[in-house]
Amino acid sequence: MMQVFSKKRAQKILDDGAAEVSDSKIDLALSNRQRIINKVLHNASLTPYLSHVKTLFNLLQDYVKGSYREIPWWSIGSVVTALLYILMPLDAVPDIIPIAGFLDDAVVLKLCLDMVRKDLDKYKMNKVASAHDESDATS
Question: Which residue range or ranges hold the DUF1232 domain (predicted)?
Answer without folding.
Answer: 78-109
